[in-house]
Every structure is written in C-alpha cells, then in structure tokens.
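4.2 Preliminary Data

To establish feasibility before requesting continued support, the project team ran the inverse folding procedure on a target of 220 residues. The structure was first converted into the token representation described in Section 3, and no sequence information of any kind was made available to the design step. The complete token record follows.
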C-alpha cells in the first residue's frame, strides 16, 4: 500500500486528489496539509511514502517544505505539483530534492502512475520532459555553473563509461535508447545508471540530470 500526504492550499484541489487516490486499491491518503509548515510536520510524524507538494502556498512554500522533508533523510519522497507554464519554481523544487514534478492538469492516470513511480524509487518526470524543464530554467543556476572549467568533485569517481552515461542521461535518453545507441545490454545500462546515481549522490534520475547540467556535462 502506497501512503500519501497531500499538501495544497486549495481545499477543493485536496478533495479531488483524495477522491482519486482513495479510489485505488493500492493507495491511501494519510492526511492533508494546507501549507508547507503543516506538510513538514505531518511528513515527519506520518512518514508517508509520497508527499504531493504544491509549490505556491501561504507561509512556508512548497520549495522550502520539500527541502526540509528531503533533508531529514527519511524515506519520504516528494512529487512537486506545478502549473509549469506559469510556475518558475519547478526547477528550484527539483534542486530542493523532489523526485519529480507533474503538471496540475495532468490526466488522472498520469498522476497515479507518477505516485507509484516515485514510491518505487523512480523519477516521475520523463527524461525528455526533464531536459525541457531544465532548458527553460537553466538561468537559475549560479553564474558560470554550466560553463565551469574546474573539475566537479561529483564526477571524480566516475569511470569514462559512467561519465558517458551521465551525459546522455542529461540529454534525455531513456535506458532503451542508451542501450541501442551505445550497443549495450539494457541490464548493463541499468547497472551503469545505478552506479552513476550512487557516485554522484543523486536520489534518482531527475537529480542525475540536474547534476549533468550543474557540472557542465550538458549545455542548454
């Protein structure tokens, strides 16, 4: 059973999410939060598998709440809910430790599959969509980050093959595409991806893509 905490300042939005999630045999909503402060407190107490986190909320926003929840080291993962076209904080949410993001007007099946993906340790966002998001908001990177010439310590332990894997992850390639283009077995690709995540300290694939941008392996 996947347990979920819904954090959104709109009561009708929370009600809609709850109705959808509780219609599933493998999901249950533990509680709701109307702001970031409540979300952090309830996540620490309830330890849900997934927090559905709105970005714009009164008081503590979803970005800071995400940062605090993921920094706690608990198992809870955060799925950012954003309007995308209007919400310039989606990228900041991913950098804060979120495992992905969904557009609020996504189809119900996309929300459900996204929650399941995050709960199982995967990233919700399709790699290509992740790259488009980062391209749109790469200006949030500190000045010079994307063009840094000094070696980044996160890359020091990577082999040449793992550097190659991290680079193509940043370019939005799926495991299947990596296997076909680099002439590797898909099981081998999964092993390489796992090692890249571990060595770079990336929580998931989304964080690895961000790492590829921040270290200059991928340019927008």
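Position-by-position output of the design step:
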């Amino acid at each position: 059973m996947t347990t979920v905490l819904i954090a959104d300042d709109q009561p009708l939005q929370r009600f809609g999410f709850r109705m959808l999630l509780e219609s599933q045999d493998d999901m249950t909503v533990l509680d709701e939060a109307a702001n970031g402060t409540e979300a952090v407190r309830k996540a620490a107490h309830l330890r849900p598998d997934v927090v559905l986190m709105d970005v714009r909320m009164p008081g503590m926003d979803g970005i800071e709440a995400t940062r605090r929840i993921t920094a706690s080291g608990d198992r809870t993962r955060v799925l950012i809910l954003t309007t995308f076209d209007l919400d310039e904080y989606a990228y900041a949410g991913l950098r804060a430790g979120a495992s992905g993001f969904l557009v609020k007007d996504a189809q119900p099946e996309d929300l459900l599959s996204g929650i399941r993906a995050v709960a199982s340790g995967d990233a919700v966002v399709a790699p290509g969509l992740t790259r488009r998001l980062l391209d749109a908001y790469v200006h949030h990177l500190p000045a010079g980050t994307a063009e840094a010439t000094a070696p980044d310590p996160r890359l020091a332990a990577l082999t040449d093959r793992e550097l190659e894997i991290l680079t193509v992850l940043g370019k939005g390639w799926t495991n299947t595409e990596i296997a076909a283009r680099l002439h590797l077995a898909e099981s081998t690709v999964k092993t390489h991806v796992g090692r890249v995540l571990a060595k770079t300290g990336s929580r998931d694939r989304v964080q690895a893509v961000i790492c590829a941008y921040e270290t200059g392996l991928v340019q927008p």
